[in-house]
Amino acid sequence: MNKPLKIVVIGAGSSYTPELIEGLLVRKDEMQISDLWLVDIEDGWEKAQIIAALAKRMVDRADVDMTIHLTQDRQLALKDADFICSQFRAGGLEGRIRDEKIALKYGMIGQETNGLGGFANACRTIPIALDICRDIEELCPDAWLLNFTNPSGMVTEAILKHTNVKTVGLCNVPVTMQKGAAAILGCKEQDLMIQIAGLNHLVWATQILHQGQDKLSEVLEAVLAGNDSMVPQNIPPFAWPENLVRSLGMIPCAYLRYYYQSQDMLDEEVKELQHQDQGCRAEVVKSIEKKLFDIYRDPHLDVKPKELEQRGGQYYSEAACELMSAIHNDKRSVMHVNTRNNGAISGLPDDCAVEVSAMITSAGPIPFNVAPLPTDTLRLIQLMKEFETLTVKAAVEGDMNAAIRGLILNPIVPTGHVLEQALAETIEANRAYMPQFSHLH
Amino acid sequence: MNKPLKIVVIGAGSSYTPELIEGLLVRKDEMQISDLWLVDIEDGWEKAQIIAALAKRMVDRADVDMTIHLTQDRQLALKDADFICSQFRAGGLEGRIRDEKIALKYGMIGQETNGLGGFANACRTIPIALDICRDIEELCPDAWLLNFTNPSGMVTEAILKHTNVKTVGLCNVPVTMQKGAAAILGCKEQDLMIQIAGLNHLVWATQILHQGQDKLSEVLEAVLAGNDSMVPQNIPPFAWPENLVRSLGMIPCAYLRYYYQSQDMLDEEVKELQHQDQGCRAEVVKSIEKKLFDIYRDPHLDVKPKELEQRGGQYYSEAACELMSAIHNDKRSVMHVNTRNNGAISGLPDDCAVEVSAMITSAGPIPFNVAPLPTDTLRLIQLMKEFETLTVKAAVEGDMNAAIRGLILNPIVPTGHVLEQALAETIEANRAYMPQFSHLH
Amino acid sequence: MNKPLKIVVIGAGSSYTPELIEGLLVRKDEMQISDLWLVDIEDGWEKAQIIAALAKRMVDRADVDMTIHLTQDRQLALKDADFICSQFRAGGLEGRIRDEKIALKYGMIGQETNGLGGFANACRTIPIALDICRDIEELCPDAWLLNFTNPSGMVTEAILKHTNVKTVGLCNVPVTMQKGAAAILGCKEQDLMIQIAGLNHLVWATQILHQGQDKLSEVLEAVLAGNDSMVPQNIPPFAWPENLVRSLGMIPCAYLRYYYQSQDMLDEEVKELQHQDQGCRAEVVKSIEKKLFDIYRDPHLDVKPKELEQRGGQYYSEAACELMSAIHNDKRSVMHVNTRNNGAISGLPDDCAVEVSAMITSAGPIPFNVAPLPTDTLRLIQLMKEFETLTVKAAVEGDMNAAIRGLILNPIVPTGHVLEQALAETIEANRAYMPQFSHLH
Amino acid sequence: MNKPLKIVVIGAGSSYTPELIEGLLVRKDEMQISDLWLVDIEDGWEKAQIIAALAKRMVDRADVDMTIHLTQDRQLALKDADFICSQFRAGGLEGRIRDEKIALKYGMIGQETNGLGGFANACRTIPIALDICRDIEELCPDAWLLNFTNPSGMVTEAILKHTNVKTVGLCNVPVTMQKGAAAILGCKEQDLMIQIAGLNHLVWATQILHQGQDKLSEVLEAVLAGNDSMVPQNIPPFAWPENLVRSLGMIPCAYLRYYYQSQDMLDEEVKELQHQDQGCRAEVVKSIEKKLFDIYRDPHLDVKPKELEQRGGQYYSEAACELMSAIHNDKRSVMHVNTRNNGAISGLPDDCAVEVSAMITSAGPIPFNVAPLPTDTLRLIQLMKEFETLTVKAAVEGDMNAAIRGLILNPIVPTGHVLEQALAETIEANRAYMPQFSHLH
After folding, report:
1. Do C321 and C24 touch, CB atoms closer than 8 A?
2. Which end of chain B is least crowded, N or C, by CB within 10 Å?
3. Which residues form a coiled coil (chains A, B, C, D) (predicted)?
């Protein structure tokens, strides 16, 4: 395992990239990386240049023998790569802003991975993800693609179904739940064995083992008492419907709020949008990003700045680096990943993507069995998976029937004329990014 | 088969009863009925007396040897009965008005069998239905209970799970679909073989066979072109989302509007409620009922009056009479009934109630197999069945966790604080009818 | 429904054909048949001519306006046909004799539809059945193919999977069970509603309804007490393992002896074979057939002779005629047929053939749901279906891995060297009839 | 983790016990054991005394501070135990000899875990195992029970279903497969990730990962070429049916010979039995055991003797020690264990025992998901599991219907009179050990 590695980052102009660089530098003894290729497109070029410069300063400071390359030539970068991190955002933050605003205009929750926004994001992203995979199949067929491009579950499913690329989908939500549970219990993360199951942004912790005991109800009570350690930093404090969550016997991820507290979420978004200085969530993110890049520009900065931690995707990059190392070194660590179901969650198709706990080997993740879920939780997962699968179909084939049949199932999407109009506006507003629907124009 | 029959009607003060009487009189050669017992409670006594008097005039006119009994003593009536028709409304129309108004107050669809209203109705009705069944188990264990008390699917499931009573749940929706399809095709109803599958008020016609051909798409196109023959008379004209329904390859029942056009339905209900003269749907029904009883009172009336046909539940009673005759005479006719699933719809528990097509024998319904449904439709059915099963559990055991977990799944129920408040108000407003929740007060 | 029908019989030289003719003549008022085409190949020509001559005498005697055609030109016969009865025997009785003797030589049960013999028969028959279906697809695509060529279940599955022909598989076993149950109960057949489930030659009666009661245990006790009315006439008297069958709560068809009494069946076959005058079962059948054709030759014979009834396949042809009439007249009678599973038996693939009770309409059979079977019975059915499905694959694709993997599952087939040798000898001995395995020679 | 452990061995007079002692001594740094309690019954007392004396000598030599206790008082031994190793043989080798001879007398394979012998062994063993568990529930409810009493799968299932004891079933077969695969590949065992799935003595290796590659077909070809490293030492060399096994794409465990080569196995057993000097397998084992105990008696022996390795159960005890250490130290090593299915193998009940690969934590095994098996293999597993489940029911409840219905499914058991007689003789010959069937006498 001593061949030095070539790693490629697609969408390198992301504000998260410094965390990724830091993660790689921290693991310099586990993974010898000769070349790190940063790839971005013209639209993100300015940000990519800032990132590349910062990356070089970080590498220099760490005194590591790793060459940073910056390019718009994706194929050049992919040639013989060992790992590819995909973290691009199709249509940029402008796309996300549009998604949120269109949804809210029609009285729907506007969110980049859920509801109509998740649908729009998938339709913009999946065609590009599949294009990248065609290149991988040709230029580095043995490479592992670590996808943390959102909506991560649907993008992973599209890649698993339509390409031969070895891929794992990642998300910071389960990592945060794991770290949070350790914090609540006051124990080391590696002493916990936490099991996660569901779909991306629709997962539950089903057991939290520590020294032979399942500490789940202890952790759950802390969560209900207001401890928000298990919630990503970018999500403001909130309270769960207490009896509901207690009766589940599982700990829901923060995104379950969209399903367990749908009206509250909508009301909150509407209020935020009306708040003059702030705008919708994507606009808030845009302004945070702007500040981050101002910091990144500083020629004296040669470490990941503290400010990045508030950004929300915290631990994303740590998860990516840990996954690379686990595969590279056959570490057999337990991680929580998006991968092919294959029966891990009974009641879902074998070929769909699920987010489950797995042991990571040099041959990729080997998922643990998910013990039978409570029927009501399974029904929600099955419903949402069907929405996702129909959305993937719509995104790949431009099939409007699949689109509408999927959206109609989604419990946070109202149906009828309002949906038809919102969908039409979504497709029209994204003409440039949704070639699969060009037959509709 | 020549022993004369004893038939009992529970909730006899219903405005539908004259249709039931007519149906029995029309079938006098198929079923010899010596005694028809009309049962109601003190609250409905005035209406029951009007009905009983009309029933006697109808029997006299028909010159049939059938004695009409009117009583509040349910056990006296049930002793050695052959068939029981259950059509009571727990809490009366006042209860339904409350359900609709509470739901609408909280921005939810208010409807007697769907959403929060369906939940409330189930919680009021199921305890009484089970009480009646205890009497049946003791007094007439071989009798068939024909349930058309709403919510018919959940009531039937409660009876199937918690009693030994032989029961079949009935609804006029599939009958109307069958008659409507025949009208559209211009053929005799008995020449059609229509297959229906799903849950009560959540069914689809999956095939419409005529002379060796499946005419479903022909009928579907007529429906999409505006032919509303398949829709019960009390539902005003509406248009389906055309592409969606066409792509299903099945014909949804009218109640699917609550799922395929949820926002439109809510908007419509809000508008109706604001319309000064009219009030909510239940208030409209109340005023129709009042007019009907004014007509029934007429001592010269000795037939079912025409006006009853606009009432909405048209064909309910016809279905009941036909079912009684089919069982009594081992007719082997095809009807669409609520019965134990037992694998008829794959993907649902064996012990739940489903609404499917069946051949009716003297041993009750033998359901046809339901060919695999499109996955998205199955997912919706599975979700709604889970809502129903949790609601039945809540209704029987007073389990608030089951209640909230069920409601949270229901796609036409918003979640969060609004749901908690609406649920609390529902239970408070129904204190007198929901003893199972008395521990909450 | 008044267009006169064209009916084609493939394998018309069968000794059963006179029963079929009789069945058609008896139903002359239900089905007006203008042309009956008898088709056979050169090898069976002498027998076919005898049958054709007898058929003409029978038609003349019945004074029915139906033209009998005899031909070796299958395509001429099929052109614009309405119904096709397939009853050919690939390789003739000589093939069956070979099957039985090879199996017995290797210490295995030798039988035309079970074990190694069933496999051999399927491999000889399915390629021809598919050839016939290619002709049907071209020459009479709307025709119904009634298959009673053995092994009926596997042949039906091959046709369902590999052609677009509308087909129903038939067998006399369920008919005999139904008639036998009526005889035991002393009631009319049409007053019984008997439900049958499983695979061809592997079915159980699961309920026997009469006047609202399930009489199954009454019938079962009669069977265990020695009443053999439910067993085809060609099967000699035998006793079931009493406790086993009683505990099943279902009545097994006679062929279940091969699974419930495997050693006894083998011992019996070995004894029969050693009996000098008699030979194996197929040789007995051959000698019966010879006598029958001697009778058929008699130019004075113009009815179905009594002797035919001992032949074993009794009611086969009656079932075929009744099925034709039920389809032609949309009779909605209940019959027991081999058809696509589609979920009727939970736990089997949708696309496999099962033998179940169905209502027969002009669009073909609509199967009843099969209530969940006892798990042990389901396991046997699942195992045998997998054997069948692998055998169909072997027969269609010449896939030797499928062949061996299927045979290894079959509980009446010993495995190891003995199986490898027996299989090799089977394929070698059938070179002329198994072109799909020509790559092995 | 520093409380010294109390370990109990039930059936300590087993000839394997020295291997267990050695395993514990080797792991003295991982597990500090203060007390090792050896328990046996009067019938095995002489052997138990020999073992205890040898154990003391081994402990002395290793200079470890561990007290050896020998007792017939099981409850005294169990009080506050941490781990219990169950390795008793109900009825002793005499029982096994009887099983093998009765089966062979009736022309059946005679084997201690398969077919009729497995059934008999289960019926003798399960009542005792459950008795032990009642003691554990009372005296050391937190202890882990490591079961390697045969038939390990059925005994584990009985314990899982009928007690609250934390248990894991173990077998040396998967361990041997893992070690053999490493030997074939010439790599370290810990560098392999081998996945095993099925039931006890009915497992397949489904993948053999090494450095990111699945080496299964390489290993499979070595196996087919005659490399017997994956086969336990006590099983003589044999050749698999080559095409069959190659087409599986999985490596079967040696016991699959009973299903893939049933006639060969029977012939071999019959031949062995007829061989004058040798007797049946159990008699061979008895004579090996006699020699081993002669060696153990030697007061100078203070290590595990070499001769033990030919005994057959090699690695059993190593697996037990490794499992104890993995639980005690939360090692998260991958082992292959019998545990509750819970969906790990789709198509089997949640509550049955399966043999699968799992990560071992301080809370016990967390099974990996088993990717969907080929349908034919699944069918065999489902069938055999049903045999096992019915056998467990028969063993626990004395239910003869369950017994016969289970045995009839078993593909290596012939059915009919021969089975009824063999079963009756089995129960009669085991009167003293099968109290559950006392109602039959």
Report:
1. yes
2. C
3. none
What percent of chain B has a predicted confidence (pLDDT) above 90? 90
CB C333 within 8 A of CB C326: yes
Contact B326, B365 (CB under 8 A): no
CB-based contact B367 C369, cutoff 8 Å: yes
Domain D5-169 has CATH 3.40.50.720: yes
In this complex, do D243 and C401 lie within 8 Å of one another by their Cβ atoms? yes
> Which CATH superfamily does the domain covering C1-435 fall into?
AglA-like glucosidase (3.90.1820.10)
Residue D367: cis peptide before it, omega within 30 degrees of 0: no
Tens of pLDDT, residues C218-255 = 999 999 999 999 998 878 889 999 999 999 999 999 99
Q: Is D399 exposed, middle or buried (0-12, 13-18, 19+ CB in 10 A)?
A: middle
Residue type, B307: E
Q: Is the pTM of this model over 0.95?
A: yes
Alpha carbon distance D108, B106 (integer Å): 72
Cross-chain CB nearest to B260 (options A379, A389, A415): A415
For residue C244, which of D425, D437, D400, D391 has the smallest C-alpha distance? D400
Asked whether residue C1 carries a pLDDT value surpassing 80, the answer given is no
The residue of chain B with its CA nearest to that of C341 is: B371
Closest CA to B325 of B18, B2, B24, B45: B24
User: How far out from the chain centre does Cα C31 lie?
Assistant: 24
Closest Cα in chain B, distance from residue A279 (Å): 23
Rounded distance between C-alpha atoms, residue B135 and residue C243, angstroms: 38
Q: Which residues of A are catalytic?
A: 255
**How far is Cα of residue D414 from the mean position of the Cα atoms in its chain?**
25
Assess whether pLDDT exceeds 80 at residue A258.
yes
Q: Hey, what's the torsion of the CAs at B158, B162, B168, B171, to 10 degrees?
A: -10
Contacts of B418 in chain A (CB under 8 A): 263-264
What is the rounded CA–CA span in Å between residue D227 and residue D204?
Answer: 17
C-alpha to C-alpha distance for A113 and A255, rounded to whole angstroms:
10
Map residue B50 onto helix, strand or coil.
helix
Q: Do chains B and D touch (3 or more CB pairs under 8 A)?
A: no
What are the residue numbers of the active site of D? Answer: 255
What's the pLDDT tens digit per position in D37-67? 999 999 999 999 999 999 999 999 999 999 9
Residue C372 C-alpha, separation from nearest chain D C-alpha, in angstroms: 15
Tokens 């248990």 correspond to D167
Cross-chain Cβ contact C264/D418 below 8 Å: yes
Chains near B with 3+ CB pairs less than 8 A apart are A, C
Is residue D52 within 8 Å of D114, Cβ to Cβ?
no
Contacts of A among chains (3+ CB pairs under 8 A) = B, D
Q: What whole-number distance in Å separates Cα of residue D217 and Cα of residue D223?
A: 10
For residue B264, the chain A residue with the least C-alpha distance is: A416
Separation of alpha carbons D333 and B208, rounded Å: 59
Rounded Cα–Cα distance for residues B77 and B35 (Å): 10
Tell me what pLDDT residue C273 has: 86
Q: What one-letter code names the amino acid at A327?
A: I
DSSP per-residue codes, D106-124: TTS---SSSHHHHHHHHHH
Q: For B213-232, write each residue's pLDDT tens digit.
A: 999 999 999 999 999 999 98
Residues ≥6 apart with Cβ < 8 Å to D322: D23, D27, D333, D335
Which residues fall within 8 angstroms of residue A84, CB to CB, at 6 or more apart?
A: A7, A8, A9, A10, A78, A132, A136, A140, A143, A144, A145, A146
ipTM, two decimals:
0.96
CB C143 within 8 A of CB C84: yes
Among A1, A363, A368, the residue with its CB nearest the CB of D369 is A368
